[in-house]
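Chain A, query sequence.
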Amino acid sequence: MSLALIDFSERIADDIDRIAAHLAEYEVSDASDRVAAILNAIDALEYNPLIGRSVESGDRELVVGRDARGYLVLYRYFPGNNTVYVLGIRAQREAGYVDDLL
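Chain A, predicted structure.
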């Protein structure tokens, strides 16, 4: 089986910027490492596109880290074209995704 393609929605850059700004506001020393961990976890979807838990409307969430270092990546996998569409990223402690993706 070939690796799944990963396609990022246009909003992902805004999500990463929002997370980085939040980490900078609280002077988190390993902010760049946290962002890199999120992106590395998304790379794993190439090999395991169904690894995330099922959520409403057929989407999936990939859990990255835990507690204050925890993030959720909302995505949709289409086996027909073997593509993962990354829809949003948020901290686990945030109330929801921006623009209510779910």
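The CA atoms of residues 75 and 87 lie 5 Å apart. The mean pLDDT is 91.
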